[in-house]
Design brief:
heterodimer, A: mainly beta, seven-stranded mixed β-sheet, four-stranded antiparallel β-sheet, globular, B: about 120 residues, mainly beta
Chain lengths: ~120, ~120
């Protein structure tokens, strides 16, 4: 069966420090991968999506970047965090074939607080 | 382009009374529609989905949703609310275009259940 792992669950980082959040998927190959951010009191904002290794699309200009060094690994990074980067970050996966029938499968999320 | 509107940002019901969370969508194609539930600091869990089969869809935990094309609606209902239903609910429509096939999320409805 397919599973998705996201870590860490919580993170408190000072302004200006770097960031690395990792997401891995098991039990499927060549998935579409997604990073979402959920700010307090707001809906989900799509940050990045990837249809394959080293194929990343950015949805909004921001202080963050994403990389996909392996088929089932998706990393969200920042060189210098801003206060506005605080939020709840969610990784998700799907396949082109399954998305209409099953939507996405989400990770458990990372609560990032920038202080 | 796809879009989804959740008409209420916050709904409060008493335990044992019916739940109605409203959602309207806009789609150029025959859409796939989903409802997701998110408990505090958790990832999103698929509650139910409509994928052009039966218009009345049954999901987990006693929730149902009815697809009404003439009204472009996909409202979520439950006959009797339970305290454990308190969470945030997202209505979602699929994007059938492109290789990434992204989902478009509503802004969410926070369901409060009181004694």
């Amino acid at each position: 069966s397919q599973t998705i792992h996201q870590w860490p669950a919580t993170l408190v980082q000072p302004v200006g420090s770097p960031l690395s959040l990792e997401c891995t998927v098991e039990g499927t190959s060549n998935p579409n991968l997604y990073w979402y951010r959920q700010a307090a009191g707001r809906g989900l904002q799509l940050l990045f999506y990837s249809i394959g290794i080293d194929q990343i699309s950015s949805e909004v200009p921001q202080n963050l970047s994403a990389s996909r060094p392996q088929d089932r690994q998706f990393i969200l990074s920042s060189k210098k965090l801003l206060l506005s980067d605080s939020g709840f970050y969610l990784c998700a996966w799907s396949t082109l074939r399954q998305i209409q029938a099953q939507g996405y499968t989400f990770g458990s999320g990372t609560r990032l607080t920038v202080v | 382009a796809q879009s989804v509107t959740q008409l209420d940002s916050h709904v409060s019901v008493s335990e044992g009374t019916p739940v109605l969370l409203r959602c309207n969508y806009s789609s150029s194609y025959s859409p796939s529609l989903f409802w997701y539930v998110q408990h505090p600091n958790k990832g999103l869990q698929l509650l139910l989905k409509y994928t052009s089969a039966a218009t009345l869809v049954k999901g987990i935990n006693g929730f149902e949703a009815e697809f009404k094309k003439s009204e472009t609606s996909f409202h979520l209902t439950k006959p009797s609310a339970h305290m454990s239903d308190a969470a945030e609910y997202f209505c979602v429509v699929s994007d059938r275009g492109g290789t990434a096939s992204k989902l478009t999320f509503g802004t969410g409805t926070r369901l409060q259940v009181t004694l």
